[in-house]
Amino acid sequence: MPSNKREKSASRQYQEISGNTNENETDQTRPTTTTAATDTKSKWLSAHNDFVAGINTVGSCVELVDLYAEGSVNLVIADFGNILLMPKIQAKLKVFKEFSLLKENNLSDLPCAVVACYMDTLQPRIPALAVASGSAVFLFKSLRPYYKFVLPQMEIAQVEKDVWHKAREGNIDMRAMHDVLNDLHRGGTVPLTHRSLAFLQMTNTNEAHQFVEHYKTIELKRQSCITCMKKLNKNSADEDALNCLVIGTEDQHIYIIEAQAFTIMATMNCPATPSFLDVSGVYDVEFRILATCRNGYIYLFRRGSETPRNAIYLNSIAVGLERFGKNIIVGCMDSSLHCYTTKGKRYWKHLLPAQITAMCQIDYRPKGFQAVAVALANNEIHLYKDKFLVDVIQVEENIYAMKFGKLGREDATLVMITKNGGLLVKILKRTATFEESDTLHGPPKEQQVKIDVPKRTKLYVDQTLREKEQAENMYRIFQQDLIRLKLLTGKEFLKSVQAGLNPIAKTKNEAIRINAEVHGLGPRFKLTVKLQNTSSTSLTPIIDLFISFTYDENIYSLNPNYIEIPILITGIEYGFCTFVTCITDKVISDIIKVYVCRRDSSAPLISAVINMPVAEPNLSI
Amino acid sequence: MGLLDSFFDWLGFGKREVNVLVVGLDNSGKSSLLNYLRPRETQTDFIAPTVGFNLEHFVCKGLSFTAFDMSGQSRYRTLWGNYYRTTNGIIFVVDSSDKTRILVAREELQQLLSHPDISSRNIPIVFFANKMDIRDALSDVGVSSALGLDGVTNKSWHICSSNALKGEGVADGIEWLSSAIKSSLDQARR
Ligand SMILES: Nc1nc2c(ncn2[C@@H]2O[C@H](COP(=O)(O)OP(=O)(O)OP(=O)(O)O)[C@@H](O)[C@H]2O)c(=O)[nH]1
Ligand SMILES: [Mg+2]
């Protein structure tokens, strides 16, 4: 396929420009030394990197299916084409074999989902492709268009019908038509058809006239749009059993459609427009449908009921929905990932480092590995197994669509479509193991480590027995002691407050800190008393204080031994000095007590005890 | 090998018994290749995917081969390692039309080469770039570079394209392997 060749060489050029080392083309002329397969740490092999594949799609439009029942799985993508060229639609259904395009079919409208389903019981089991786009599901058998299912017509307001009926009869009054339809639209009670809405949007009378002329003879229809589609097994849980389709629509319905005759088997009313579906079970026995809706709810439907059984309110709008057994994993627009039970109980929530761009389920049966892959806007793909982050894959671009499954003959491949249309394929290494430990979230691994508890000794057993028997007594004694201790502490505290013994004085509105220093070797010392007014409540300075000292007059003489403190301004540290002379010949030292007192009170505000050093003998020369 | 056997060998009597391990991903054509080496009357048309492994015998260049036809399915690949110690040579079959998985083959080869029972010995390896008849299949050069064979310097190896159904290229590779095993055995004896 020459066009494909060209694309490949182009992709190589791209990679050279960007200096990308992850070059992994399985091409004959490829240099071998640069393959990423040598990256031994990664759990993934980069099997294919084509950054210019030109694919524009979302996760629900990617399907992995063995289209020819030959044991080799094809990649099927419903490609939006270049949506910048709208309204010209270039949407295509593309089927790949290996990494090259096998076949493509044009689609008439933008697709929203592709599902491979079995719609007959013939052998070998060859699946058909159902493509939901616009208001129809197109069925492709052997890649040829086979059937088109159209959503049921919806009611049209009589007034609207009359307006267009009149137009058909020839008396077209643009003004009146516009007014009637506009009133109807403003009223908001009856939804208009697309045709009327388009008409209302026209500003140019000429254009509007042409529009009416063109459409007046065509029958007026109102149809909904399909927003999501999944498959459901019809009468057996086998993997290749007959399927039916489950379709969510813009007009807030969920239809279950039989894929053989295309009849609607069940209709459910959803309180809002569903955006993602998850379907499990068997139609004939019991099934569940989970639908995340645009109003931020997840609804659970079950067989036999038209209305939802349960509703789970999300704080944000869902951007992805996966289910593992009874656990629902849902990614939200506020870059959070939640896990709920089907009953609506939340198990955990993670805040992710960036917005979610795509989600997919990883179910690798041979290894029993189940996880959800979440692609983020910071070019990382996070793999969560239960609530544990078990792997982070770095990619070069934002991933807009992802699908994990079998591709070709490989069981564990992750297919990714990037923002700029690249197609990337990674293969899970056979030897890869995912450790459930996780440093980011949850308890550390050490918590699970069993502590090696030594054997119980006799002493221990006796002690526990005694504790059991005497518990009440012990408790009482303990409480008694505790209260006694508290009382003692209180008493001592009171005493020190009364005596002004503690180094920080605190009266109702005055707080003073004292700090004393002794300088010199002796026999003459300099004693510096530092005071600081630390009261933070009032800014008024403290006045009328004085310092006095008590000491043994046989040992020391102080000059002065009384210091007036005129004022202490908040915050400032003041120093007051006095000279201490040791007047004894003996080699002894004593304490000097410093009191800071108020003139109007007998108890000192604060006090300090200074241990004087032994004085050097007086050397008189 | 007993003393008597080596004596016979030295005289050129009898055939030396050698073991070879046939590995490669599933569906690469290992069983088909060995099927082709059987005598014509015992060849079968239908080959089912191997479960576990099968034993095959064939003779080439005076060597009597016992081939362990391993299953390539990922759940059986751990079995390969059990036979590395006793093998005299390795046949590595690659499906050259399976571009998706050529990197997986490379990964498995890497694992094989780094296994202690292989890395410490000089075991000849022959690579078959099989299914060369399929359109768009890689050439032997392409397979060689995709597998990173340039980096394999401490083993004697050889690659040839093959078609296991028609037998093209098969004899070529097996003959190379026989002479490589012979020379490695001679070397070991000396
Ligand atoms: N076209 C073509 N097909 C081949 C060739 N060799 C094998 N096949 C086919 O490939 C398929 C798998 O061959 P097997 O011999 O069973 O592969 P295997 O490597 O033994 O597979 P496992 O036993 O599962 O590991 C069969 O359908 C063969 O017919 C070949 O050279 N060309
Ligand atoms: Mg086999």
UniProtKB/TrEMBL annotation, chain A:
Domain Bardet-Biedl syndrome 1 N-terminal: 44-302
Gene Ontology BP terms: non-motile cilium assembly; protein localization to cilium
Pfam families named in the record: BBS1, GAE_BBS1
UniProt GO MF annotations: patched binding; smoothened binding
GO cellular component, one term: centrosome
Domain of life: Eukaryota
UniProt region (Disordered), positions on chain: 1-38
Basic and acidic residues bias spans: 1-10
Feature: compositional bias, Polar residues: 11-23
InterPro entries on file: BBS1 (IPR028784), BBS1_N (IPR032728), GAE_BBS1 (IPR056419), WD40_repeat_dom_sf (IPR036322)
Residue intervals of the Bardet-Biedl syndrome 1 protein GAE domain: 512-616
Biased composition (Low complexity): 29-38
Protein name: Bardet-Biedl syndrome 1
UniProtKB/TrEMBL annotation, chain B:
Keyword DNA-binding: no
Name by which UniProt lists this protein: ADP-ribosylation factor-like protein 6
Pfam family membership, one: Arf
Places the protein is found: Cell projection, Cilium membrane; Cytoplasm, Cytoskeleton, Cilium axoneme; Cytoplasm, Cytoskeleton, Cilium basal body
Membrane topology field: Peripheral membrane protein
Gene3D superfamilies registered for this protein in UniProt: P-loop containing nucleotide triphosphate hydrolases
Origin organism lineage: Eukaryota, Metazoa, Spiralia, Gnathifera, Rotifera
Record-listed GTP binding positions: 24-31, 72, 130-133
Single GO MF descriptor: GTP binding
GO terms under cellular component: axoneme; ciliary membrane
Classification via InterPro entries: P-loop_NTPase, Small_GTP-bd, Small_GTPase_ARF, Small_GTPase_ARF/SAR
Annotated SMART domains: ARF, RAB, SAR
GO biological process, one term: cell projection organization
Alphabetical keyword list: Cell membrane, Cell projection, Cilium biogenesis/degradation, Cytoplasm, Cytoskeleton, GTP-binding, Lipoprotein, Magnesium, Membrane, Metal-binding, Myristate, Nucleotide-binding
Family statement: Belongs to the small GTPase superfamily. Arf family.
Residues at which Mg(2+) binds: 31, 50
